[in-house]
Amino acid sequence: MASSPCSSGNFDSGLEIKTRSVEQTLIPLVSQVTTLINHKDKPKKSERTQQAIQRVGQAVSVAVGRFVAVGEAIAVENEELKEEMGMACFEARRAGDAIAQLTEVGTAVAPPVDGRTTVFSDRTGMVKAARMLLSSVTKVLVLADRIVIKQIITSRNKVLVTLEQLERVSTFQEFVQIFSQFGNQMVEFAHLTGDRQNDLKDETKKARMAAARAVLEKCTMMLLTASKTCLRHPDCESARINKDAVFHRMRFALQQVIEIVTDTRPCGETKVLPLSIYTGIKDFKSNVEGLREGLYSLPHQALSGQLDAVVERTEDFTDSAYTSHEHREGILQLSQLARQDTDQLIAAWMEAKHSLNAREATEEMELSILKTCQSVYELRRELHKVAVGRAADLLKLHAEHLPLRALKASGGEGNLEAVAEYARTLGEQKEQLVETCRLLCHVSGTEPLEITCIHAEETFHVIGPQIISAAQTLALHPSSKIAKENLDVFCEAWESQLCDMAVLLREINDVFEGRRGDKRAYLSLPRPGKHSANLKTVKAVKLDAEEQSTIAKLGLELRLLTSDVDTEVEKWEDQEHDIIRQGQSMSSMAYSIYLFTRGEGLLKTTTDLFHQAEVLSEEGLQLCSSLHTFSTKLMDEEKVVVLSEMEKLMGLCQQLQMGVRTPVQGKTATFQKVDSSIQNTRAIITVMIYLLPVCNKLVRKYKSERSSLGSPQSWRDRQSSTAIKDDVLNGKNSNGFGVKSLEQHMANFTFLESK
Predict the structure, then answer these.
(1) Where do transmembrane segments lie in this chain (predicted)?
(2) Cys-Cys crosslink for 136: which of 92, 174, 307, 421, Cβ 3.0 to 4.6 Å?
(3) Which pTM was predicted?
């Protein structure tokens, strides 16, 4: 929603509404008040209409009374807001009473003759009361929202204090005690900031919040191992450097969160994103097309200056050592063509302006506008192809993580020379990835994706040197288990960021191709009582760092798998096929479970997770039914393949269903149930990834044969069959970047507690 509901009907409260919760609270009130005011425009009003209006007025007054009571209670608990909140509540109550009085008409059909003022005789009074009501209610909501911001700041301050204590500890016993407290504080902070992220209206702020929270998630595990390494090897300079970098990055991310929620920056600074080529081209095209409506809308120097700025930014591509000669020449030629077309447009524009009768674009100018827009689009398309192509190549090249393996091996052998050599290799890889993220930012297509690209660039830039310092520490202390564990954690963070980059690449492609790249939220959460007959309410538990990282790793794998499902779904011509509809539904539910592992989305508690998993298993069994029906049309060899995978899917769905319906008690049992549910979901989605391309191939074959033979006879009657590729049947069509095993990956800090 672009504007706040208060702006509808000219009821502007003068307060900026930044969260969806405040906005959604106001919408019913705006609707009711608008109904009251608009009834004045109808000259004839029946008794029934008058009574309905009176009921609406009374309902508004009662609702405002309850609302104000909550506001006054908040004021009592928060001394700093007591005066402002009290005044806003007083105004809201007064406005509610005024509306109730104006709509009180008794049972008389005709307008009152006793001199009383009502909504029918005093529309101005009603408008005034409505303005006061909406303004005061909005102010109460915005003031209440400050309490949420205060909670986040207070939580951040607690984390900072404990962070400083952790940085100064000198013994393992003290560290363990303080880190336990730190973990609990981070869980609270994660819940508060996760809720805030979901509530923000501004998509750019949401992206910034997501980036800052991602840093905190990864850094929490790094902080644990880096601090332990420093305690074990207090005289090791590389261990100290490694630890200091983690603490610095955590403090920076904590500050970023506060800047986002308070909408401020230190010392009055204003941070502006570096202008991307995509944004520059969009603004340039907007001004070019605007010339149709106004020949005098801007000076011609501004237009040529905008294009010059865009072309200058293409130097990030043409000056890169990693850009091929062919691509470099293509970008330069398209840039020159855009300049020529713009010069021709300016010439036609000047001629039209000097013509006495011309008030709008001439035919020659219209042609120049079209040519200029087309040439800059071609430039943008070429840049997109270069950036996305390079990113895809890099991800394939580094899928095996060879420099990381070499650093681990040489560090474990105590070979400092080999560590130095492989550190240079990793440094080169880091520079390539940093530059590629910068190019992707230029073609990302939306500001939130630009922010994600910048976050990826910063992550590679920071983690690269941290991996090297961790490897140096291990090389100096090759028998140290803690130093080895520390290097593993940093390497896994690097691998995790590469996986995130793969997802980012798909989202950028989606935007460029006209798809928003947004995952559909699965809103059909189980209704109370429908799926919970065999479920007991699970008490929220706190997970330790290892459990949190395990669940986060599973969630990341689930995210990659759902992306693979989406890719396969897009290849189907018949998007209404039962197999596709059920597959999309299951993928959306699995994505909701992934969001749960990050403390985001609609699933807030472990009970929500178990409910969702049960619904997913039921949908999976429906898919099995569809697959069985589908198999009846197949020849024997093809039927065996589909039924074999269907039986795997059915067994996994039944296993998931039984698992989530089994009641458990206690922290360990709850964690095991969560872990098992997500692992079973992952296995189900993996089977789907095998099945979808197989079924799609068979559907295409069936369609092709029907078309060529002109007969709808059963596939079983065909004598020929098309072989299905072994790599698909053997499960080699999964994510190209590799999904790591449970023992190899400890990535994000995750939160499963209910609020």
Answers:
(1) none
(2) 92
(3) 0.64
